[in-house]
Every structure is written in C-alpha cells, then in structure tokens.
Design brief:
By secondary structure, this protein is α/β, with parallel strands linked by helices. It has 8 helices and 15 strands.
Length: 224
C-alpha cells in the first residue's frame, strides 16, 4: 500500500512521524482521517507523543522493530510516557550524545544501522545493543554526514539520495541486506527521509510527490 498524505498541510511527513512494523509515533492533534490513513497504510497503531516538547518525531527518534533511541533532551515525563506506551513492544533508551536529531543521524532496519560520523564513536555499541542489529557502520553518503535524512530503509527495500555513488549503493545493499534505488520525493527533493514514512507493510509519501516519483518509490520499497 502506498498513499499520499500531509501533516497539517505540510508534505514533509517524515519530519513528523517515526514508524516501524509495530507502531507509528505521530504528533498530537492529527485529524481522525489522517490518523486512520496512517494506521491503515502502515498496519500499525498511531501513538501521539512529543519529544522535547516538539512534534518532529521523525527527526528526534531513530530505531527499528527491536528498539528506539530518544535524544538526551527528551523530558523525563515524556520518556516515562513513551516507555509506558511501548512497554512490551520495543526497548526504549536515551542516547546521551551531543547531537539530538537522531532521526537525521541514524538509519536502521532490523539487520543493521548506518550512523553519521557526527555521532561519537563511544555511542556505537549502545546503538548496536538497543537496536539489536548485526552490524553498525559509521560513514557519510554523497559527502553528506546526516545519513538518516538521505535514505529510507525497511526489511524489504530502500530508497536513497540521488547523489550517492555506485560504491555507496553497493555498501547500503550489503549492510542492510536489501536492494536500494535512488529517488526523489515531493517534486524533486533529494532528502527522501523528509517525505517518506515506510515499513514492511506500506508507504506514506508527501502529497507533493509526482507520479513518476511515486512509482519509483513503490518499486524500491517493494509495496503492492
């Protein structure tokens, strides 16, 4: 399933939503129609949360089906609420590093994680443990360090910024165990994470995405 959507009129849906195969962390105050679309397409429960009193969950949270990482600026009551709501679903931990936009710095599926060079090396072992992945690789893509903003990966496929090299495409495929295709979203945006929210069941795409972009994203993420 693949559907066009916006969040409060904004096509940069990946900024606002974090999703895996178990749940979607969404901003408070969504319309019932938007909430239902998210749940139907991704086949998950939509859970309203704020992180650091902000609604940009896709920027602040990184993770997969086994664990999620929250930034050090998460408020104690928010942390307790997230842990309570996700109890029994995933491991929830705070990653105490200087940077806070974890979604822009870490990309993961259930097999591996790609981590930005901006993340301290001392944090790599914790990332591996919390996410329960086999491999963690730290490097930039297309000469850009914010690797989490450049790609969307599931356990079925991946899309990535058109500026990556062939060698980088092969590295991504080997790391995550899925094939990757370059793509754009929202009428030419290279930073695909901003406009795509995906899991193994479905894909949500910003509503400024063109037909050709939609087809390529659908092909890359292997959704029906």
């Amino acid at each position: 399933m693949i559907e066009l959507i916006n969040i409060n009129g904004n096509p940069n849906i990946g900024v606002y939503i974090f999703a895996n195969n178990k749940f979607a962390l969404v901003p408070p105050g969504l319309t019932e129609k938007t909430r239902k679309l998210i749940e139907d397409v991704l086949g998950v429960e939509a859970i309203e949360v704020r992180i650091a009193d902000m609604i940009i969950n896709g920027v602040m949270v990184a993770g997969n089906d086994k664990g999620i990482l929250l930034p050090r600026i998460v408020k104690p009551d928010e942390y307790d609420e997230v842990r309570s709501m996700l109890a029994g679903k995933v491991r929830v931990e705070v990653l105490n590093i200087r940077a806070t936009a974890l979604g822009n710095l870490i990309a993961a599926n259930n097999r591996a994680a790609l981590v930005s060079p901006l993340v301290e090396k001392s944090a790599l072992q914790k990332i591996k443990e919390v996410l329960g992945v086999e491999r963690v690789v730290q490097q930039q893509l297309a000469s850009i360090p914010t690797v989490g903003s450049l790609l969307v990966v599931t356990n079925r496929g991946g899309v990535v910024h058109p500026g990556v090299t062939d060698d980088e495409l092969r590295l991504l495929a080997d790391l995550f165990g899925v094939e990757f295709m370059t793509a754009t979203v929202n009428f030419g945006v290279y930073f695909v994470r901003a406009g795509i929210v995906a899991n193994d069941k479905g894909v949500l795409v910003g509503d400024e995405t063109t037909g050709p972009e939609l087809m390529r994203i659908q092909q890359a993420l292997k959704v029906q």
